[in-house]
Design goal:
The protein has 70 residues and is mainly alpha-helical. It has two helices and no strands.
Length: 70
């Protein structure tokens, strides 16, 4: 490798490192992302709880229909 190749590789490396630092999200953006993820997780758990409640209600109705009276 000659001198120009080394200088070129060094410049490319500096550009890649600079770009990765420049495009890094700020602390505020990270906090907003965490809030959104928590909101999503809360929504999913609320829906799962509601579905579980409804499925248990349906099972109870089915069991009541299957009861035979003497």
């Amino acid at each position: 490798m000659d001198k120009n190749s080394i200088i070129g590789l060094f410049i490319i490396a500096v550009m890649i490192i600079g770009y990765s630092i420049y495009t890094q999200p700020s602390q505020d953006q990270l906090e907003k992302q965490q809030v959104e993820q928590q909101r999503f997780a809360d929504s999913v758990s609320a829906v799962e709880a509601k579905l579980k409640e409804q499925s248990e209600s349906i099972k109870l109705k089915i069991n009541l229909r299957n009861l035979k009276y003497p």
